[in-house]
Amino acid sequence: MPRMVQVVLPHMPHHLVHRGHGWQVVYAGAEDFGRYLEDLRKLSSAVDIRVYAYCLLTKHVHLLLNPGEEVAAMGRLMKALAARATRYRNRVEGGSGTLWEGRYNSSPVQTETYLLDCTRYIELNPVRARMVPVAGDYAWSSYRQRSGEEDC
User: Fold this and answer.
1) What separation in angstroms does the CA of 150 have from each of 103, 125, 144, 145?
2) For 36-49, what is each residue's pLDDT tens digit?
3) Rounded to an integer, what is the distance from CA 98 to the centroid of its chain?
4) Could you read off the pLDDT tens digit of each residue along the chain, which spans 152 residues?
């Protein structure tokens, strides 16, 4: 069965979720989280995608991205991120095969109100999961940078 077409609208933020295959662990430690964030910074800059918010959890990632004019850039970014993370995990664990459960899910964020709500939803994930008492205590989300607690 062919894959469903991803709807990507130019100059509009999109909420993306990418899960580990079978909800397997994607980020096992600080080095895994750090590598993904460094790749996100480099690759998003290279393809001119604006990152509004992110939250990396052990088994999945939430991203709030704006593809700008070239909508295909978002797919290229996500493909490159997934490939790098997969190669890294396979090298570290001596494994092979996929790390991710298919393609990422994406939803356009069409209003400013929803943009704010979506950002809060993403950055409060670790609080809702009872991983930390407040969003600022979680190192792997955009909250501390957006709130000015940490440099970008």
Assistant:
1) 31, 19, 5, 5
2) 999 999 999 999 99
3) 17
4) 455 667 899 999 999 999 999 999 999 999 999 999 999 999 999 999 999 999 999 999 999 999 999 999 999 999 999 999 999 999 998 888 999 998 999 999 999 999 999 999 999 999 999 999 999 999 999 999 999 887 75
Which tokens is 149 given?
């607690």
Kindly list the structural domains of the chain, giving each domain's residue range(s) and its CATH number in brackets, ordered by start: 14-146 (3.30.70.1290)
Residue 89 near residue 32 (C-beta atoms within 8 A)? yes
Residue 126 amino acid letter = P
> What tokens appear for 133 in the block?
């008492």
Tokens of 63: 């991203």
- HEC assignment per residue over the chain: CCCCCCCCCCCCCEEEEEEEHHHCCCCCCHHHHHHHHHHHHHHHHHCCCEEEEEEECCCEEEEEEECCCCCHHHHHHHHHHHHHHHHHHHHHHCCCCCCECCCCEEEECCCHHHHHHHHHHHHCHHHHCCCCCCHHHCCCECHHHHCCCCCC
